[in-house]
Design a protein that fits this description.
Blueprint: E1 2-6, E2 10-21, E3 26-32, H1 38-52
């Protein structure tokens, strides 16, 4: 778990998974919030704003 400070939504506690491809030359970091957590509730409006944009 990692806590990230978002400038608008405040602290977000997220799980980080690193996905590797191409023999480890390409890495993608996937951050997720636990379902039902305060962090998930604070992230949800950001996803909605992105879709509306």
């Amino acid at each position: 778990m990692k806590t990230i400070m978002h400038p608008v939504r405040g602290p977000l506690t997220l799980d980080c998974d690193v996905l590797t491809e191409d023999g480890g030359h390409l890495r993608r970091m996937l951050y997720t919030a636990d379902r039902g957590s305060d962090s998930e509730r604070r992230l949800r409006p950001l996803a909605t704003a992105h879709r509306a944009g």
